[in-house]
Model the fold of this input.
Amino acid sequence: MKIGFIGLGIMGKPMSKNLLKAGYELVVFDFNQAAVKEVQECGAEAAASSKEVAEKSDVVITMLPNSPHVRAAVLGKDGVAEGAKPGTVVIDMSSIDPTESKSIGAALQEKGLDMLDAPVSGGEPKAIDGTLSVMVGGKKELFDKYYDMLMVMAGSVVYVGELGSGNVAKLANQIVVAVNIAAVSEALVFAKKAGTDPELVYQAIRGGLAGSTVMDAKAPMMLDGNFKPGFRIELHIKDLNNALNAAHAVSSPVPLTGQLMEIMQGLKADGLEKNDHSSIVKYYEKIANISVKRD
Done:
C-alpha cells in the first residue's frame, strides 16, 4: 500500500516519519520545502502538488491546520480529487469543523472517492513517539481496513461513528482539556492567594477525584513557569471556534466553552498566542495579581 501524506507541520512530519519507520511507501507534499526535504531524507518520495500525491497513492492522509486548508488540498485546483483514482480513500487527520468533514466527504463521494475523518489528540510529543489518540468517523469497513496503518502513529484508534463523528469527538476532547486546564489554573492561583503552597496542593489532590492526565501534564508547567508549546493557545482557539460553530449548528449550549474562548482571546491580546495552553494560568495570575511559579 502506497500512502500519500499532505501536511508536514508540527504533527504531520513526525507522523509521516513513523509510517516510514514501519516500512510504508510514502509520497509527500507540503508548501514548506524544508519539511519535505527532511521527510524525503527519511525515505519518502516528494510530489509537486496534492494532485500528484493522489495520482501516486492508494490512500491519502491530510494533516492540515483547519477546514479551508483541507478543502483546498482535497477539492481545490491541483487537489487530491483531480488526481485520485476511483475508490481512493482520503483520511483527514486534521482537526476541523465536523460539518465541513461531512461536506467535503459528500463532494468526494460524488467523484467516486471515500473519506474518513480521523483527528488526533496528544500533541507533538505523542506524534513523535507514535502514541497519539485517534478518533475516527466514516464507514466502519474503511476503519477496519486502515486500522493497522493508523495504529503505527497511535496508542489508540477508536471508531466513533459516521463521517464527522471523529471531529465531534476531537472537539469534545478539546472542550474538556480547556476547561480542565482552567480549573487547575483557578485552583492553584486560589491556593497561592490563600497562603498555601500550590505545589503541595497539587501533590495533595492529584491522587484523588480531582486528579487527571491534564493536571499531571500542565500543573508542573505552571509551577515551573514553562510555557514552551506542546499545544499552542492559537491552535486551541481554532478548535474552540470550531466547537462553538458545530455546537450552535445543532443548538447545543456550550457556556463553558464560550468562557474559555474569551480567556484565550485575552491571552492572545497579551501576545501569548504562541505559548502552550497551560498559560491559561497567566490569565488567573493577572486578575489575582499573584504568581504560582516556584520561588
User: Anything to note?
Assistant: Strands lie at 2-6, 25-29, 45-46, 59-62, 89-92, 114-117, 120-121, 132-137, 154-161. The chain has a mean pLDDT of 97. The two ends are 55 Å apart (CA to CA).
